Amino acid sequence: MKSAVVLLPGLNRDRDMIAALTKISGVAPHTVWQTDTEIPDVDLIVIPGGFSYGDYLRCGAIAARMPVMQAIREKADKGVMVMGVCNGFQILVEAGLLPGALMRNASLKFVCREVKLEVTNANTAFTRGYSHGQIIRSPVAHHDGNYFADTETLARVEGNGQVVFRYAEGTNPNGSINDIAGIINENGNVLGLMPHPENLIEAAHGGTDGRALFAGILGVAA
Amino acid sequence: MKARVTVTLKNGVLDPQGKAIVGALGSLGFDGVGSVRQGKVFDVELDTKDRAKAEESLKAMCEKLLANTVIEDYSVAID
Fold it and tell me: What residues make up the catalytic site (chain A) (predicted)?
């Protein structure tokens, strides 16, 4: 399993993501810069979290229009797995690779805490390391994670089983509709999620609940 | 040529910032504010003198970048 991590100015979780992928797969990911128009032959492309372009205009809006996104779109169309975490999720919805939008948290406050997630679809290439209905812990850190989609889109996303993670046990930190924390596209090869599983993969993090996501994706033992 | 682009949230999209502003206005003694919807304004200068071309171009800018049409509407006014 070969992977690539996308780098954009203002992202700050790239090193954590590279460390997680390296530790779990044993192979360091390629890195791809925002102006690159070609992406190496990989099975997984990850857009990490942060504040690309200072969240100017809308979170992820400017990053979503950078040349590398066209290359990512082409790879996604060919079935390559793409995962966006936090700002990466915001970039994927801005780029139209995932439906809906991520709006300002209902509390209007930046939230940095631990939440509980329910795995609501374990039958995907991303979540196969978990079991259906499993509750896992995960850190969140964002100001704009309030997922929104119009009624028609929401019904489609729910009906297709595209909601793979929901905030559980009353821990919704942002007012997200239907407690949505992470969704996949219709083809099942693009995932976006607000929580940071890469920050809960070893004992020193205080837990390893995020490890099975990477292990499942990468096809290695957790 | 100068133009003003206004981007606002679509009807039905919750606006927690607008709600917070209503609350703040109330605490300042401005009673009777039913609602506030917060939006964005872009003042754009264009090289062209062709109004039709300018309008077409501004609409394309809104569709591609200035507005997120999943949650926002936009309007264009040319001076």
Answer: 86 (nucleophile), 196, 198
